[in-house]
Amino acid sequence: MKDQNEIPAWFLGANAPKGYYSKFDQLFLASPEGKCFLLKGGPGTGKSTMLKKISFVLKEKGLSTELIYCSADTDSLDAVMTSDGKIVAVDATLPHAVEPKYPGIYETVVPLSDCWNETVLKENSKEISALFDLNRNFHEEARRYIAAAADLLDEAARLEMNSIHQEKVSKAAIKICAKEFGRRNRRQGTEKQRFISAVTDKGVFFFNKTAENLCKKIYLVDDDAGAASRIFMSTVRKNALEHGFDIITCRCPLFPSEKIELIFIPELKIGFMTDNKRHKTEILPFRTIHARRFFDEKKYSKNKSKIKFALRFAAKLIDEAVLCMKEAKKVHDELESFYIKAMDFSLVEEKTEKILDLI
User: Fold this and answer.
1) What per-residue confidence (pLDDT) applies to 32?
2) How many CA atoms, within 13 angstroms, populate the side-chain half-sphere of residue 158?
3) Do the beta carbons of residue 100 and residue 111 sit within 8 Å?
4) Is 295 domain-assigned?
5) Which among 47, 131, 173, 333 is least buried, having the fewest CB atoms inside 10 angstroms?
6) Beta bridge partners of 205
């Protein structure tokens, strides 16, 4: 059985500038031999514990497994899945609600509402309602700080983009791809999308172990403002897919539609990662590509102070978002305490055993 630290761990959703950004739609691959369990219940109803037990069974069976953690509580699981997406169990509640597409055929809804005592919950309805509202408010406040930080980071990237030789960045990436990828395959590669980092109650959290376990060789792009790394990573992604490699692309939670933070190529055990002062990686790279080598120094010197200003205050705004996330976590813990008191966990255990038998 694999050690827990050897299993790839990710986020599939994160607080982003325009609200909670989810990739939970990528979890399940519907197939005759597949099965997806959608766990429905409130905070503290045992969903994360169920997921941990399911993950142990999958590992014991020798199945390649991935763990999906909650960006609002990095000690809590949101989902567990086999790497081929055929067996999935997921916390299907807000903010990443998942509904069945083929109910009863491929997906099974597992309600935990019949395991709690509604009378106990209704006795505390005012306190519970107020805590839910307060939790939402803290998350919304965190997203506003994240949005403001993203605006400043985008400005820093724009200023840097005007200061770099963009063709040199592309050529550097293409040269490395030519060295590592070899000849093109006939088929187009496929892509999974994940988050390897997120703004959490513990700061900007990064799954270093996942990168270490999936890669024997890592190219690291050191780029604080992020303009050069956007060009570099987009070029690598395009080349890897055209060469027929299946890749895992990790997006930046502050720019989930635009900026790539990391690319894994499992077949080659190679990774391409970005690095900056907001989340320093703890990995010894095979090679570091410094963005500064692509700068037009005269142009950069004109924008240097503005870029530094934007980066410095973006970091402060992210710190404020983290404080909001900490407060939201405290409120969530209070909510859990109310539901724990109302739960019959022997019934939850029965449901867990039924899921394990089906797996």
Assistant:
1) 78
2) 8
3) no
4) no
5) 333
6) 198
Task: Give me the residue label for tokens 């187009």.
Answer: 188
Q: Could you give the number of structural domains in the chain?
A: 1
Question: Looking at this protein, which amino acid is placed at residue 147?
Answer: A
Q: Using CA atoms of 78, 81, 84, 85 in order, give the dihedral in degrees to the nearest 10.
A: -60
Task: Please name the residues in contact with 109: beta carbons below 8 A apart, sequence gap of 6 or more.
Answer: 38, 40, 92, 100, 103
Residue-wise pLDDT for 171-195, tens only, equals 999 999 999 998 887 789 999 999 9
User: Which tokens go with 125?
Assistant: 């309805």
Query: Domain limits at 29?
Result: 4-116+344-354
Residue 36 domain flag: yes
- Tell me the pLDDT tens digit for each residue of 36-47: 999 999 999 999
pLDDT value of position 184 = 82
Instruction: Give residue 358's pLDDT.
Output: 87
- Helices first, then strands: H and E counts in the chain: 8, 16
Buried b (16+ CB within 10 A) or exposed e, 23-60: bbeebbeeeeebbbbbbbbbbbbbbbebbebbbebbbe
Q: According to the model, what pLDDT value does residue 30 have?
A: 75
| Cα 275 to chain centroid, rounded | 16
Give the chain's length: 359
Strands 35-40 and 87-91: parallel
Q: Is residue 74 part of a domain?
A: yes
Asked if the model's pLDDT at residue 97 lies above 60, the reply is yes
Please state, in angstroms and rounded to a whole number, the distance separating the CA atoms of residues 310 and 312: 6
Q: How confident is the model at residue 5 (pLDDT cuts 50, 70, 90)?
A: low
- Per the DSSP assignment, residues forming a β-bridge with 77 are 69
pTM strictly above 0.90 = yes
Residue 23 in any domain: the answer is yes
Burial environment of residue 183 by CB neighbours within 10 A (0 to 12, 13 to 18, 19 or more): exposed
- Distance CA(227)–CA(221), nearest Å, equals 11
Residue partners of 287: CB distance under 8 A and separation at least 6:
219, 220
pLDDT digit string, tens, across residues 265-274 = 999 999 999 9
Cα–Cα distances in Å, from 113 out to 104, 118, 181, 259?
A: 19, 9, 51, 39
Task: Find the mean pLDDT for residues 272-278.
Answer: 90
